[in-house]
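Changelog note: in this version the structure field was regenerated for every chain. One regenerated record is shown below for reference.
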Amino acid sequence: MLTDLDIRKAERADLPDIIALFAADEVGGHGDTVEPEAFGDYLAAFERIKASPLQTLYVARLGEEVVGTFQTTLLTSLPGRGQPRLVIEAVQTRKDVRGRGIGARMMHHAIERAREEGVAKVQLSSNAARTEAHRFYERLGFVRSHYGFHIPLK
């Protein structure tokens, strides 16, 4: 039952569980690992996110277990008369609890925070290989609108 699902800002103590979510991702291909020598890199990134007034890292917890995570960034650019957008990134739900509404609750949480901030639009990108995730986002009301591009630098 999701009555005990809690979505809150991530704390340093959540970091090992968040890292494990990304390391277990079979599609992302980001090279995430739970190896102890990599922890410093994750900790440095966590501290940068935490220090930014425009970024927030969240966890979804069922009881004492981290079962999901996502990150938001408030982005303002000149097009659209400078209206801010909320970008959702790094969405992960633990594989063994998918299909129970956790992802939907995380997205609704992000959208509600955006409404409270007076944000004009919520947007996200998703790996082209994640066709199930694309259907999930569309069921939530997200509309495919752009192509994404990137250049790997490392």
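Spot check on this record: The chain is about 30% helix and 25% strand. The radius of gyration is 16 Å.
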